[in-house]
Design a protein that fits this description.
Blueprint lengths: L2 H7 L3 H19 L16 E4 L2 E5 H4 L1 E2 L7 E6 L2 E5 L11 E10 L6 E9 L7 H5 L2 E7 L4 E7 L9 E3 L8 E9 L5 E10 L16 E9 L9 E9 L1 H9 L43 H10 L12 H21 L14 E6 L2 E8 L8 E8 L5 E6 L8 E5 L10 E5 L7 E3 L8 E8 L2 E9 L15 E9 L7 E10 L18 H27 L8 H28 L10 H20 L19 H35 L5 H44 L3 H10 L17
Parallel strand pairs: 2-14
Antiparallel strand pairs: 1-2, 3-4, 4-5, 5-6, 6-12, 7-8, 7-13, 8-9, 9-10, 11-12, 13-14, 15-16, 16-17, 17-23, 18-19, 18-24, 19-20, 20-21, 22-23, 24-25
Length: 743
Amino acid sequence: MTPIESISIRGSNRSKMISKLVAIGSLLLVSAPTTVMGRIPSGTSSTSHRRADVIIKQASDEYKASSESLYDHMMTLEEGLVFHWNDPGEDGVGANVFSGRIVHVSETAEKAASYLALGVSNVEFPTSESELMIGSDAIIGVVSTSDVAKYYLGSRMPGENGIRKMEDEKQTLIDSKIQTHVGDDGSVTTILSFEKNLKEDDSKEIVIKKDARNTFLFAVGLQSNGDGLSYHGSRGAFQLDFDEIVYLAEKGQIGSDIVIFKDPEPVAEEGQIGSDTVIIEDEQPVAVTNTRSEAEIDTEANTETDAIPETETDSETDTESNSETDTESNNKEYDSAALDACASDDPDYLHMVKINSKTKFHWNLDVWSNDTPPAVNGKLVFEGQAWLGFGFSFDGSMIGSEAIIGIPDHEDFDRPLKFKLGAKNVGEITPLPDAQQTLLNAEITQKNRITTLTFKKLLSEDNTDELEISADGMNNFIYAVGTSNTFGYHQFRGSFKLDLSSCNSPIASSRHLPHKSKAAWVAHGVVATLAWAVAIPAAVTTAWFRTIVPQTWIYIHVFCNVAGFFLTLIAFIIAVTTMSLSNEPAHFSDPHHIVGLVLMLFVTFQVMNGFFRPPVEQKKIDYGWIPHTARGAWHLLHRVMGVVLLLLAFWQIQNGLLLFADHFGYRPMTNFFFAYIIVLAIACAGLKVWLIAEQDRAHLQAASINSSINIDKGIGPQAVHKVAFTNGIDPDSELAPVQFDLQ
């Protein structure tokens, strides 16, 4: 039926559609006065719009008169896939019938369809593909059996609560069939035709609405995946309002001229500007974009001058350019998400994620077999020679995760095994018990300097302690590549999120810190090291060995402490600022962050406390550890906090070196830091031994003087100590100079 014929049959729809459009426009203006109606989200073409990460085509954008005489309209769902349909009748038997046809054309028999499916969802604005599919009803035609039937879509996998055929009494399809035709050029055409009731007798089945928007799903199975129901080769969604198409056809407006959005939900976050939209008067739909040529615009201007203001028209060239720009921008978004392509370049696998320039992960889902439990076939490929690891994590972190690790030429592990990642050191990475080693076809091979780790792993293991892999949801995967074939520290590693069933990885990313933040973290590390490996140790050792410089030690001690405080403050500000500017700020979510905060607070207290040191009290000197004066208590607290801060700082520095190496793929420099600590400790110990020896020599000299005094003047040792105290000297204390004179 042509659009002109449909005018005479359904002319009464005009006033009804006009009223509906006016009501919708009023609702949009009242409920969302600041939003832009009919806005095309960024990164999509004018023929679709995005809800969260779900792209749904609009039939009102792309419909045209059907090329087949049996149908009214058609639209292209994707390359090689076209959907034809008839408008439901006004009354009588035809008023409750929806007739349609899906036509799939492939260039070769290998790419031919094994089944075609058209589903209807009761979710108009889905937030995920799972929400769109699960709970839907579908018409599925299987080529190998020539069977066309209605199915429940309880999940993405077949089963009693998953994808299953409806009961016989609910199989109400009329004149439904699936056919194939092989062309002379080797191409294969697959056709699914059906007639379905808009409203079924079973109230649980989803109703297809004649005068409102319907959300349809489509899927194409490939012969290469199996000749029955198997994982689809492509799928998508579109929305169709039958009365809306009738009205547009009566107006003579063809797809892509008009876009009508009924969703009053604001989409300002997409970055569109209000000037993209024009509200048409005289009961016209909302015009969003115009892809017509200038000649077409001039022709229409002669008949409907007020339909589209002249200032809002754009040339076809500009629209195509914008569409290309949007596509390019969208591709860049996925490039940054480490998804260069979804289709695998390995014929044995369907999908692929390019993790980095040298590493790829290929996979197939094996969830359709009745003989084996659902599993994933995976292959990690690295352009180089090294041990490889591929793991499964709760949150993308390493510790507590599980991994498949392949170590070439290992004397104990002749094949890849499952490991528990208890910590970052090699000693805490241990194989799971033999009963849990359930991998199939696991091997690691090296050829032409390319290392390949292949495996088949069950999605859900018998041991409930093992992490479960989701077949139709987002998973956190981790990976690691060693520096050589010898198992040890990795040269780089990362994590990414991935939906295995849809090849969807909107937030997949390397766990390495962004390259642009590397300089900031280098600055943070250098400044913090100067503070806690140079300035603060200098302050502590100066206090320990103040007898060497009794007149100036206090000035050196204060200067080094204050310098350490300001350096720590600078390092702290760099860390907090850099973390805040990252894509996913996670302040104080790591032990390194927490210890850094503790150091910042404690060193602030230590420096401020130093300026509130109590004065010397003229009381009897205490020789024990328990202070009996305010100065003694202050002295004990100052010493203990100094030692604790220094030990915390040494741990913090080595941990920071490990984090930096881990994030940016360098070998950790902790060995150099430990060597520095050892040298510093040996130097302090040697200096302390020398001071003790010098002090012992001073005591011997004092004993000789005491003996001489006793003989010549009859003064005992206690009198000598009294004389010393009177002169401000304690011969048993490190506070006194090594050489002192009783005279």
